[in-house]
Amino acid sequence: MAQEKLNSLVTPDSNGNFGQHGGKIGHPALAKALEELEKGFHSIIGDTEFIAEMKRLQATFIGRPSPIYHARTLSTRGAQIFLKREDLNHTGAHKINHCIGEVLLAKKMGKKKVIAETGAGQHGVALATAAALLGLECEIHMGVVDIAKEHPNVSRMKILGAKLVPVSAGAGTLKEAVDSAFESYIGQVEDSMFAIGSVVGPAPYPEMVAYFQSIVGHEAREQFDSMYGGQPDEVIACVGGGSNALGLFNAFLDDQHVELVGVEPAGEGLDKPGRHAATMTLGKFGNIQGFNCYYLQEEDGTPSAVHSIASGLDYPGVGPQHCYLKDIGRARYETATDEECLDAFLALSREEGIIPALESSHAVAYALRRAAQLDASKRLLVNLSGRGDKDIDYVLGKINL
Ligand SMILES: *Cc1c(COP(=O)(O)O)cnc(C)c1O
Predict the structure, then answer these.
(1) 247 Cβ below 6 A of ligand 1
(2) Which residues are annotated as modified residue N6-(pyridoxal phosphate)lysine in the UniProt record (predicted)?
């Protein structure tokens, strides 16, 4: 059975760094809590009881392993396209993988509550689900603009018993929600754990979330080899903070012949500042929200406004492991525009009967473009990070069907 394990390339040094990226640049009040979390996290990696409980919940609650599906109609463009179906997980995306891990860890550390930010509400719903399952309180911070936009997820969180904290500061979206959640956490570090939503933030978060997501790649590598033989030529995933991409990439890092491709949102175009979120492509090095990475910034270093049709990709920074993989040339980062994303959303819906999340549609968009450049012997493995039910009304408002 596939087992979580992190490749040394994406495991930090003792200061929480991956090359020049990462680190723990924190509020002094946070330092102690981060240290406690780091200890807690490292103790569970070798704890057979913890792992057994996590495996039980992966199989019986999340529904793992998620299958790999050969998308034969999409593949008539050229290369063969395979999908890792994280959209079939309970709650409809990959986020439940790290939420189950984080809440199990919080419980093991004796915490009563988990606190987090959410953008589109996907992380909030997954965390509220895991907290309901394991009997912990859950406090979710969400920008007022996102609350208005993402009504079904707001309702889900309330039904699951989470306490929702609206954040009206600044643009009222994800970045402000992160600041607000951290502030609330600092006031209650004894009883609570901050459960971040991606491979971002100060150490140990990037390592911890990557560890919990690594199940995706370990499963996929085993499944692909036993069903189709060998490894894919390219492994492709969308990148917001980078957790679904890193979860898949991790297992293939030592397979030098496998190309790893992250796909970022080019929004309305890379030439339109403030109207895309192509962090790896156009960001500059610096520190944002407790860690170093490439991020989209103004002259004075403040984070730029960002945009993507997919709210889950709408963040000016990106995980430090991805920045490092880019620096050493092990992964490459491409982009897809809002328009290409909508085309891919419809193509997968109509040609394969799978409605993908707009986030995941970015990876599909690149795969379609790439498949057409390659012959039918090449094989592309795409992480279908989530399902698109949450996006259907928005899409219908954008295109006339
Ligand atoms: C949140 C989300 C993403 C983006 O987050 P990563 O950390 O980059 O994976 C991608 N796909 C779906 C379906 C999401 O909900």
Answers:
(1) no
(2) 95
Tell how far the Cα of 197 is from the centroid of ligand 1, in angstroms: 9
Query: pLDDT by residue (tens digit) across 66-93?
Result: 999 999 999 999 999 999 999 999 999 9
Residue pair 127/104 in contact by the 8 Å Cβ criterion:
no
What distance in angstroms lies between residue 185's CA and the mean position of ligand 1's atoms? 23
**Assigned token pair, 182:** 């951290």
* For residue 326, pLDDT beyond 90: yes
Out of 95, 175, 326, 390, the active site residue is 95
Residue 243 CA, ligand 1 centroid: distance in Å: 7
- How does pLDDT run across 99-115, given as a tens digit for each residue? 999 999 999 999 999 99
Question: Ligand 1 pocket, 360 CB below 6 A?
Answer: yes
The verdict on whether 95 is a catalytic residue reads yes
Residue matched to tokens 């895991």: 130
pLDDT, mean over the chain: 96
How much distance in Å is there from the Cα of 309 to the middle of ligand 1? Answer: 13
* Residues 231/310, Cβ–Cβ less than 8 Å: no
- The CA dihedral of 71, 72, 76, 80, to the nearest 10 degrees, is 60
Going by alpha carbons, the residue nearest to atom 3 of ligand 1 is 312
Domains and CATH numbers, the chain: 12-60+95-210 (3.40.50.1100), 64-92+214-398 (3.40.50.1100)
Question: Is the entire prediction scored with pTM above 0.90?
Answer: yes
* C-beta of 279 in contact with ligand 1 (< 6 A): no
Q: Is 385 in the pocket of ligand 1 (CB under 6 A)?
A: yes
Residue 117 designated active-site: yes
pLDDT value at position 135? 98
On the question of pLDDT at 26 being above 80, the answer is no
CB crowding 57-76: b at 16 or more within 10 Å, else e: bbeebbebbbebbebeebbe
Q: Which of 275, 276, 249, 277 shows the shortest CA–CA distance to 262?
A: 249
